[in-house]
Design goal:
- It contains 3 helices and 5 strands, in the order βααββββα.
- It is of the alpha+beta class.
- The protein has one domain.
- It has a 5-stranded antiparallel β-sheet.
- A hairpin with a 5-residue loop joins strand 2 and strand 3.
Length: about 90
């Protein structure tokens, strides 16, 4: 993962007891900073989308790689038709 990637919480991140605030909704965020640790491990600072973020909650926080996953684009029905009915 790199700065600028769109992410959401992974299943591991949703089940983490200290990530319940973010797990309540289907949040989408962007990685804004990498924080390097020893051994080549990074923490990722994520800025969550303000339109879905409740006012009394954090808008950014640091996460481990296993707590995040890439956001996937949903395919349109016309794209699916082209894939299967060419």
């Amino acid at each position: 993962m790199k700065v600028g990637d769109l992410v959401t919480l992974s299943e591991y991140g949703r089940l983490s007891s200290y990530r319940q605030t973010e797990a309540e909704g289907n949040f989408v965020g962007i990685i804004t900073k990498l924080v390097p640790w020893s051994g080549g491990v990074n923490d990722y600072v994520v800025q969550w989308a303000a339109s879905v973020q409740p006012q009394n909650r954090l808008t950014s926080a640091a996460y481990q790689r296993r707590e995040l996953k890439y956001v996937r684009r949903k395919k349109k029905s016309s794209e699916l038709k082209r894939m299967f009915f060419v």
